[in-house]
Write a structure and sequence with these properties.
Number of domains: 1
Strand order of the largest sheet: 5-4-8-9-17-16-13-14-18
Distance between the termini: 30 Å
Structural class: mainly beta
Order of helices and strands: EEEEEEEEHHEEEEEEEEEHE
Number of helices: 3
Largest sheet: 9 strands, mixed
Radius of gyration: 20 Å
Number of strands: 18
Length: 346
């Protein structure tokens, strides 16, 4: 557990201000960004936004229940909160000399939120929710039940030229002086070494340390207007080509109904940020790589072809390979701040 707070605080609950909802940006993804820092140190920004990489809202340090970094040797490094700005919370780490940081992570407290029935279908498309979730919501609507959700944010970033870095400190990392369990929802990048444009990214999604099968995951980059969706296999694994150099993020949301509590939902949001280096490739190779990944013969940015989606539309099977999305929509305005405009469970 980091020094930034504990589970004893309980859930943050504030009154739902319906009149303010239209003015609040739909920012439900939360991610870590690396910033310039003195030699040997690490500075990160924790931010939320409607569409990566645009930072829109900050995250309160008091909302973090776990945070930290791990060095290339597997040693735990303290991650400290710094200044809170309008769009990001600054975090600092100072690893030992000669043992640079490979990865950092944060996990927030849980928050309660109530969505209007009008926004729920858009939200489900944004996260590529499975059919079982849609059917459960349809049944709740027939009973006249509201959407009451409790959600938690998880964010990871890979540094030091190690795309995956070591896994989070756990019992398997005996070198870590302060072992702690993995995040409640995590995406581990399995490739070792530097990623270059055109390489295939392999990753695994874990829930409570166990592989999460059938989970939809989207890859988004700062140089591409399109996102690539993949679905994890029975071992929680999936892969996707990364066509361009630059900053990228894997994002996923595990959403499920709460047993024996009709109308109530639990969700866990996760992102894993990383960078990809340029590769000496002939002109047009990156575009062809992305086109092949998308499963269409149209040029990048064309608004025609199979599996294309723009604006608020999604592919018919957004969690399947070759599916893609152009951007998020304003489905989750109440998740735009940490803590959000929310209401307690009833």
């Amino acid at each position: 557990m980091s020094s930034m707070g504990g589970r004893g605080r309980g859930f943050r609950r504030v009154a739902c201000l319906a009149a303010l909802v239209p003015a609040v940006a739909a920012a439900h993804d939360t991610w870590l960004e690396q910033r310039p820092a003195p030699a040997g140190n690490v500075e990160l920004a924790l931010t939320s936004g409607e569409l990566f990489p645009t930072a829109q809202t900050s995250v309160a340090a008091s909302s973090l229940i776990d945070s930290g970094c791990v060095s290339t040797s597997g040693r735990r490094v303290l991650l400290r909160a710094g200044k809170t700005g309008p769009s990001a919370l600054t975090l600092h780490a100072a690893p030992l000399s000669g043992d640079p940081v490979a990865a950092c992570w944060v996990q927030t407290d849980s928050f309660d939120v109530e969505l209007t029935a009008r926004l729920v279908p858009i939200y489900l498309r944004e996260i590529a929710a499975p059919e079982s979730v849609r059917q459960a919501w349809a049944a709740y609507q027939q009973q006249g039940l509201p959407w009451l959700e409790r959600y938690t944010k998880h964010a990871r970033i890979s540094l030091s030229g190690q795309p995956g870095g070591p896994p989070p400190p756990s019992a398997s990392l005996s070198a870590s002086p302060s072992p702690s369990p993995a995040m409640a929802l995590d995406i581990e990048i399995e490739a070792v070494g530097r990623l270059r444009a055109g390489d295939t990214l392999r990753f695994r999604v874990l829930r409570d340390g166990q592989p999460l099968a059938g989970q939809a995951v989207e890859l988004r980059g700062d140089m591409s207007p399109l996102g690539l969706w993949r679905q994890t296999d029975s071992e929680g694994r999936a892969s996707v080509p990364v066509p361009f150099a630059g900053r990228w993020v894997l994002r996923a949301t595990d959403l499920r109904p709460v047993p024996d509590r009709p109308g109530h939902w639990e969700s866990r949001f996760v992102t894993h940020a990383f960078s990809v280096e340029a590769a000496a490739r002939p002109a047009g190779v990156a575009e062809r790589t992305l086109t092949a990944a998308l499963g269409t013969h149209t040029r990048i940015g064309a608004r025609t072809g199979p599996d294309v989606s723009y604006g608020n539309r999604q592919p018919k099977s957004p969690s399947m390979p070759k599916a893609r999305s152009a951007n998020h929509s304003s489905a989750t305005p109440t998740m735009s701040t940490e803590p959000p405009i929310s209401t307690a469970w009833r």
